[in-house]
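SEQUENCE, STRUCTURE TOKENS:
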Amino acid sequence: MGIEFREGSLQLNSKNEARVRPGMTFNVAVGLEDLEDKDSTDTRGQKYAIFLADTVQTVENGPPEVFTEKAPKAWTEVSYYLGGDDDKAEGVKVNTGKRGEVEVMEGRTRGAGKAVAQNIEAGEQLAGHQAELEETMRLEALDRLSKVGGGGGGSSGPTETPISYKDANDLPNWVDKGGPLRPNQTHVDGKNETVLIPVFGSLVPFHINTIKNVSQNSEGGMTYLRINFVAPTAAGASTGMPKESTADDHFIREITLKSRNASNLSQTCRHIKELRKRVQAREKQEALEADLVAQVALQLIKTGRVHRLRDVYVRPNVGGKKSSGTLELHANGLRFVTGRGEKLDLIFKNIKLALFQAAEKEIIVVLHFHLIHPIMIGKKKTKDVQFYVEVMESSYALDAARRSGYDPDELEEEQRERQLRKRMNAEFQNFAKKIEEQAGEQVEFDIPYRDLGFYGVPPHNKSTCFVMPTVQALVELTEPPWFVVPVADIEVASFERVVYGLKNFDMTLVMKDFTIKPVQVSAINVEHLDSLKTWLDHLNIKFYEGTANLNWPQIIKHITNMGLQEFYEEGGWTNVLGTGGESGEESGEDPEDAESDYQDSNSGGSADEESDSEDDEEFVDSDDESDGEESLDSDESEGKDFDELEEEAKETDKKRGRYDEDEKPKSSKAKKKSQEYSASESESGDERPKKKAKPGAPSSKPPPPKPKPGASSSKPGAPKPGAPKPGAPKPGAPKGKPAGGSSSMKGYLKK
């Protein structure tokens, strides 16, 4: 029998002229399809197909011998069941009578290709929904701008003009230590944050905000104090300038004071630096507290039961030190009290997202709150507060004695850890339900989808973390600083570095508030690309795909300078990101055309060089074709050595009229010696030419051994050590053209 399931040359039809001889074995197979079973109750079984096969051997006389005659033919012996698409991946056990149970682990039916069709259909639906989202997102953005007031975000406007004294009478006349001010000495007024500098015999006030920096040095017995002021840069930027300033104004960039007595200038320099440091710290704190909102007072439950969660920790730490405490549930918020009596209050109205993460593959159970307005904890402003409990030790001492894996103490310790993990998960979950009951619709806890999680590098944490999506956000709550991006704040998503062959890609989330920097999660495994697209599409978030990373600060700056209203009216993100994934397809150049252009641009060379290379190729191909069959049957010992190949290459080059620089025509005497040497090489005895000896005299020297292939030779014409190999281009020779006899030699070496 053949090894093919269906022999095309042995089909049973009128065109088959194959002869059957005695002793031949065949697999005779007959298949019927579109048969109808009118008695079948199942619509799928009304039409069926049947396939019959037997293995037979022809004999000289009589009917053929059937090898499969003794094989079982009962329906229970030859039938089996293949699961459909709706069945689970579990094995299907089939009762086959005497032979026991056979477990079919995988079934391939005609519906096996439905998965591919479903994926294609899902991709088309995804693309169609994304096209609808693009226009919907643009219209929603225009509607949002019309309500809020659109326009360019731009940079912050000019600063308020600093005022030292409202009236000339407010200038001080006396120093702090007593005594009148001297008109030829500098003075620092810390109360009014002003520096008085003598100019033409009068003290002129300069506010500390107008001073950029100050420096002091000594030279030639004189002490110099240099004060640099805030002024427009050479590029014309007016950052930090007062609103009264114009482009035509003149500005003082610096003032230099000198004195033989260094005491007063040194004291002035020190006071200016201290005053400037104090003012900058105050302004930084004011900017930090600018968006703080005064919270409503917490209403304590004084009568009745107060639900508490004991022995929990909080991050960020209250008081700067890690300390356990009790989390209490009150009428309109939560209160955390440490063992030292420090308190932290959270109001339900200020909670934007509430997240509960159980300890499954982590060592902590978490209740995380993402706030609407930031609050101050100690001296730090934060919008995320987390309460947690460790369910196992985060580190172990390696210097402890190593115990066996079957140590009963270690097994008991592992059992305690599992029980603690289970108990703390239940306690935190019950406390979260009580918070939802107390807060009503104000707080609803969200649980991360662990199945949709992926490993990536968030922008706030430079290490790889496990990021998980939820219904309302994309979060990473285990390693601080935490990563929490509410879905409602996302404008568009951009998948970058999506290139065939790369294992990782990046995802950038652009916020609706353009003053917030776009968030990028990098180094995501490419296997999560489809799941992330599906998740974003279910949340009605438009996403784009590209092959390169984008310069987002520059893009956001361009959009804000253009104006948001104009940006969305001209097409929105389609003009920025819509062509990213199609640039390669719409470039209009075929890869084959590009390759041909590259070859043409680098081909170069003259017509002679091209003709020489064509001749060389023809020579090589002809030799390869003529000697191909002989080389298959020949032995390595019968091949030509390196010297013979070199001589043949030189002879071929001489016929073409090409010589090496060191192969100039020789004299008649040298030519005669060369011919004698070539004749001696062609003799079967392979003896070198010797001096004439007397008849019958024994040879004084034995014949030299034949050089091995590849070994160095000292014969005339052999390459010297360190000389370029035959076929290698000489220094200075143009590329693409072999020097000397290298072209012919190359053909022989290929053979």
In short: The first helix runs from residue 75 to 78. Residues 419 and 683 are 95 Å apart (CA to CA). The mean pLDDT is 76. The longest strand covers residues 364-377.
